[in-house]
Structure formats: C-alpha cells, structure tokens
C-alpha cells in the first residue's frame, strides 16, 4: 500500500493544517500495519523533515485510533503516573521530538523499554568529550545522611551536568522529555559514567529507600525518583551490560542504545533491582537520567550519586 504522498509541507505545524488526502494516506497505512519508519521515509522523499513527519503521523494515528495512548496495560501494573512512551501495542517506533526511535524490547514487570538509536554516534562521542575532564570517583547514597560516600559497591568514575548546561545536553534532555512525556525540570542532571576493565556496580535500586534515615533529605522538594533512562555511549568489547536479577533480564550495552525502567512506588516488588555487570574487556561509557515526581531543586540537597 505504501506509496509517496506527493504532498510537500508548507509550514505545517498541526493536524488541522494537514491536507485530508495526506491524513487518509497515513491512516490507511496505519490500519494496514505498515512500519511507521517506512511511512516517515516516504514522507521525507516528498520533502518532509523527519521530525515534522513523525509528529504528523502520531497526530493522525491518535485521532484514527481513539484507544491509542500510553500503553493501556501499564495501568494494570503501575497505579501512579510514570515516565512512559506513547505507543500502541506492538509499535516498532516512538516519536522523540526530533527523531523516531526504534523500540526493540518491552517488559511490564519490571516496566522496561529498550530503544536503539536513541543517541547518534556523534552525540555519544560528544557527551564523552564534554564529561572527560570532569570525571571523579563515583559515590553511592549514604543511607543515614542522604549524602554520598565512596565504597567498593561501585567502581566507576563519573560527573553530573547541570540541566541544559550545554547545547548537546539540552537537546538530549528535550528528546527524553518528549519521548517519555515527563517535564525536563522533573529530572536530575544527566550523569556520565566510565567503567574501566573489571569495574562494576553491584545490584541496587535507584529509588530512595523509605526505611533509610537519610531519605527525607534525599527526596527534598522534588519527591521520589520514578524512572531511570540509561544511555550507552559506547559498546564495550565484552561485558558491561545492565542486569535485572529479580527479573532474569540483561540488557547488552550498545552505543546509542537506551533502556528505560520505571517504578511508581519505591518497592522491590517492582523488580527494578539492577546492576552494571563487570566490564570484561575494554571500557564502558554510559549516561543516566533520573526522573523525579516534581521539579528537581538541587539547592541544599546533597547531589545524588549512583
């Protein structure tokens, strides 16, 4: 069914401005199960920018299929709002603002989505170079004080960017916010980590344990962490994947790949216990974005370390 729509956009910004012929063409391809990536490619041949084409496709599909929304099955597992991509069951791509991102795997418990091509090679290399001069030994949350301490649970080096600190950082934060429908300000600054050979991070939770004395201080005004997006900035020669022992899962580290896992409640029942497997050969670079319930206000709150 897929053919070029032969309609070149003229400042199109919303669904109401789209020619009805194009609307019908997108709807017919969606009903036929045509890969959204192929529809985007056809629109690009007709003169559309990739981001505009992706946005138009999403707008049309939402209207054509009233049930198309955040995955309806999520509500059976998570009772409270969490960062979540907009996709129908079985969708191969999601809209991320400036690009379409491929979905390669999903899981309900833990709530986990793996994306390929979330970052380009240039973006991965750029984050590494921006972070490299500022790397220092990584710490972990101290359960009594809510501050950071150094111990052998975690053997990496790392650094934090401030929100929107660099154009590249701001671009990635905007992409995350668009794809996961979670405001940029409801997130901590991106942390870049480097694991040399044999370095690892033993299994742990990203949320702040309600039983810890230091948790109220860690939560501050921003509330609990409710989601993690882990981005791989290179492909280690061997090892370095992210393991979820309670779920029997491992996500292999691959340059440009991102893995989202969310937890609407700070409970081990969500099966988000995870760890960075030892790097067996080479090194591993990654970047992490933690999302909070409310706007993150770092003033007066010890910087979380992972």
Helix/strand layout:
Blueprint: H1 20-31, H2 36-45, H3 50-64, E1 93-95, E2 100-107, E3 111-116, H4 121-131, E4 136-137, E5 140-141, E6 148-149, E7 157-160, H5 167-180, E8 191-195, E9 201-204, H6 215-219, E10 225-232, E11 238-239, E12 242-244, E13 249-251, E14 258-262, E15 274-276, E16 279-281, E17 284-292
Antiparallel strand pairs: 1-2, 2-3, 3-14, 4-7, 5-6, 7-8, 8-17, 9-15, 10-14, 10-17, 11-16, 12-13, 12-15
Helix pairs in contact: 1-3, 2-3
Question: Describe it for me?
Answer:
Helix 1 (about 20-30) packs across helix 3 (about 50-65). The protein has a nine-stranded antiparallel sheet. The protein has helices at about 20-30, 35-45, 50-65, 120-130, 165-180, 215-220; strands spanning about 95, 100-105, 110-115, 135, 140, 150, 155-160, 190-195, 200-205, 225-230, 240, 240-245, 250, 260, 275, 280, 285-290. With about 300 residues, it is of the alpha+beta class. It contains six helices and 17 strands. Residues about 10-15, about 65-70 and about 300-305 have low confidence and may be disordered. A hairpin with a 4-residue loop joins strand 12 and strand 13.
Largest sheet geometry = 9 strands, antiparallel
Structure classification: alpha+beta
H/I helix tally: 6
- The count of β-strands is 17
Approximate strand percentage: 15-25%
Compressed to H and E, one letter per element, the order equals: HHHEEEHEEEEHEEHEEEEEEEE
Shape: globular
For the largest sheet, list the strands in their spatial order. 1-2-3-14-10-17-8-7-4
Evaluate the radius of gyration. 20 Å
Which whole number gives the mean pLDDT? Answer: 82
Q: Helix content range of the residues, please?
A: 10-25%
Report, as a whole number of angstroms, the end-to-end distance.
49 Å
Q: List low-confidence stretches.
A: 10-16, 66-70, 299-306
């Amino acid at each position: 069914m897929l053919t070029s729509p032969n309609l070149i956009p003229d400042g199109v910004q919303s669904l109401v401005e789209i020619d009805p012929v194009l609307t019908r063409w997108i709807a017919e391809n969606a009903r036929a199960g045509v890969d959204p990536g192929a529809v985007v490619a056809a629109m690009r041949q007709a003169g559309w920018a990739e981001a505009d084409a992706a946005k138009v496709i999403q707008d049309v599909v939402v209207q054509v299929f009233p049930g198309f929304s955040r995955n309806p099955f999520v509500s059976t597992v998570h009772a409270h709002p969490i960062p979540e991509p907009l996709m129908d069951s079985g969708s191969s791509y999601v809209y991320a603002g400036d690009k379409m991102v491929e979905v390669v795997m999903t899981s309900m418990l833990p709530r986990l989505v793996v994306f390929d091509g979330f970052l380009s090679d240039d973006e991965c290399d750029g984050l590494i170079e921006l972070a490299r001069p500022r790397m220092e030994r990584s710490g972990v949350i101290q359960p009594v004080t809510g501050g950071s301490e150094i111990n052998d649970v975690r053997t990496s080096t790392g650094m934090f960017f401030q929100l929107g600190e660099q154009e590249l950082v701001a671009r990635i934060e905007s992409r995350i916010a668009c794809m996961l429908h979670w405001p940029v300000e409801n997130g901590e600054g991106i942390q870049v980590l480097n694991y040399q050979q044999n370095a690892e991070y033993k299994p742990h939770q990203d949320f702040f344990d309600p039983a810890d004395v230091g948790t109220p201080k860690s939560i501050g005004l921003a509330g609990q962490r409710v989601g993690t997006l882990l981005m791989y900035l290179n492909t280690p020669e061997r090892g370095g994947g992210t393991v979820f022992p309670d779920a029997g899962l491992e996500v292999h580290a691959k340059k440009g790949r991102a893995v989202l896992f969310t937890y609407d409640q700070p409970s081990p029942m969500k099966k988000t216990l995870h760890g960075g497997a030892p790097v067996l050969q080479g090194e591993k670079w990654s970047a992490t974005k933690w999302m909070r319930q409310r706007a993150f206000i770092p003033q007066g709150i010890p910087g979380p370390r992972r």
